[in-house]
């Protein structure tokens, strides 16, 4: 499943290059609870087609009525400079538009964005570049600028700057059953997923559409993948010959998440191998995660995949995880409690 922003921009590009009037809507401010975060976008075509969202659906319906159907006294124009629209100011409006209690959001409406500019933005994102899109509020003029770091939306007195990035990517080492569950969830979360496994017996049973399946050795695959700050590498084979060198290769990259499946004992053994035989240090392995996942008492492959995906998303979103969700910490605590109970019984 493609990155939602890119999907919205592709639809908007196609509508505008076909000469269809269209509206680009951006969430620029929120107060209290809100269904979608600041920076979220949706595109609305004059024929009523919608891509993306800014709420649970009621605000989209209102915008369609005001723009596509030109209904009501507050019907929106088809052209002109950008306008702001605010929803949920009163309790009645919040209820009407399905906003959470106390929720308010402000939108910027851009009428007929330039199709060539949108096409250039999509092309840059397809090439893996991170881009600032700046909108001059007075007349809607747009400038694009490449950037090196993600940034929050900035609304100044005369300009809006929204940062768009290429898809997040996930490289999974191993094409086993758990990889299928994790790949499926990652796609639904907007990741472009690649799976690497040189073992034909595992690849032959692969059944997840939309995933790039690679046959090269994992360390070579990581090198060719060129992980960046929007990439993660997850090793799921339990085979040191496949996992270890791939993980080492990944640790030399800015990938935001690098981890391997396995028990506490297996992960400790992996670290010891890497230090004793592959010239690594504890400091060099600081970014290597394992056992991966958050503690949810998972036992089955789909449950373990859920826990891994949750950890990947938490790291991606910069959310610190409490120690009582760390797998190793919880299991160590459980082991100590069990040993204490055994001593008391004895």
Automatic annotation (TrEMBL):
List the InterPro entries hit by this protein, alphabetically.
MoCofactor_Util/Proc, XdhC_CoxI, XdhC_Rossmann_dom
Every XdhC- CoxI domain range: 15-70
Name of this chain's protein:
XdhC family protein
- XdhC Rossmann domain location: 170-312
């Amino acid at each position: 499943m493609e990155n939602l922003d890119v999907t919205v921009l592709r639809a908007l590009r196609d509508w505008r290059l076909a000469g269809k009037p269209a509206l680009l809507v951006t969430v620029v401010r929120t107060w209290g609870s809100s269904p979608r975060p600041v920076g979220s976008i949706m595109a609305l075509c004059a024929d009523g087609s919608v891509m993306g969202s800014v709420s649970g659906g009621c605000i989209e319906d209102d915008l369609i009525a005001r723009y596509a159907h030109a209904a009501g006294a507050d019907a929106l124009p088809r052209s002109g400079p950008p306008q702001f629209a605010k929803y949920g100011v009163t309790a009645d409006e919040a209820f009407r538009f399905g906003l959470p209690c106390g929720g308010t959001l402000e939108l910027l409406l851009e009428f007929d964005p330039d199709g060539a500019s949108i096409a250039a933005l999509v092309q840059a994102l397809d090439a893996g570049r991170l881009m600032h899109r700046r909108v001059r509020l007075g007349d809607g003029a747009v400038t694009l600028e490449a950037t090196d770091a993600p940034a929050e939306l900035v609304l100044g007195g005369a300009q809006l700057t929204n940062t768009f990035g290429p898809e997040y990517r996930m490289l999974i080492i191993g094409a086993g059953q758990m990889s299928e569950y994790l790949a499926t969830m990652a796609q639904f979360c907007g990741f472009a997923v690649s799976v690497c496994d040189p073992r034909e017996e595992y690849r032959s049973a692969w059944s997840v559409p939309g995933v790039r399946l690679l046959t090269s050795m994992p360390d070579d695959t990581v090198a060719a993948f060129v992980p960046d700050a929007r990439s993660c590498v997850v090793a799921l084979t339990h085979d040191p010959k496949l996992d270890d060198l791939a993980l080492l290769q990944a640790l030399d990259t800015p990938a935001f998440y690098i981890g391997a499946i396995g028990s506490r004992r297996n992960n400790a053994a992996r670290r010891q191998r890497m230090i004793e035989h592959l010239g690594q240090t504890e400091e060099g392995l600081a970014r290597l995660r394992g056992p991966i996942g958050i503690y949810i008492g998972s036992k089955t492959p789909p449950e373990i995949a859920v826990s891994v995906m949750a950890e990947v998303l938490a790291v991606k979103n910069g959310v610190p995880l409490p120690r009582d969700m760390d797998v190793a910490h919880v299991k160590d605590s459980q082991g100590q409690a069990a040993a204490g109970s055994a001593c008391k019984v004895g």
